[in-house]
Design a protein that fits this description.
five-stranded parallel β-sheet, 17% strand, globular
């Protein structure tokens, strides 16, 4: 069974009360439940982790080396400057999909640059919690296709 790590960076823990017009009204627990429901439908396993600290995100990636098949990550503000997080994602050796609840390209200029995108298989943004579930569906398909090849 494929296993995926769903990582969330700074401030994602306060979803539901943080600017719902951009990030939606669901809490992080509710977003995680949507992803867990999708995982059950797809027959895959997901583990969730959130931290406001870049080093903790890197630690969890390192602790899961060789144990996961892919990573879904919403880096939060680390999107724009998290170079050590980027290195951790590269070193994981698994496919990465970057997700965002809102659309960073419809916001301030500084939000439009991601240091993660160029090492990710892709980025899904602007669809609220559905960005996560779409990423899970895509990663599941990628892993299945690569295993069959």
């Amino acid at each position: 069974m494929a296993r995926f790590l769903v990582l969330n960076g700074p401030n994602i823990n306060i979803l539901g009360r943080r600017n719902p017009g951009i990030y939606g009204s669901k809490t992080l627990d509710e977003v995680n439940q949507e992803v867990a429901n999708a995982a059950a439908r797809l027959g895959v396993e997901v583990d969730f982790f959130q931290s406001n600290l870049e080093g903790e995100l890197i630690d969890i990636i390192q602790e899961n080396w060789g144990l996961i098949d892919g990573i879904i990550i919403n880096p939060g503000a680390l999107t724009h400057y998290g170079y050590s997080l980027k290195d951790g994602l590269i070193d994981s050796g698994v496919p990465v999909v970057e997700v965002h609840l809102g659309n960073p390209y419809a916001r301030e200029d500084w939000r439009r640059h991601s240091v993660i995108t160029d090492i990710a298989r892709g980025q899904i943004a602007g669809f609220g919690y559905r960005s996560y579930t779409a990423a899970l569906e895509i990663l599941t398909a990628i892993i299945g296709e690569e295993a069959a090849a």
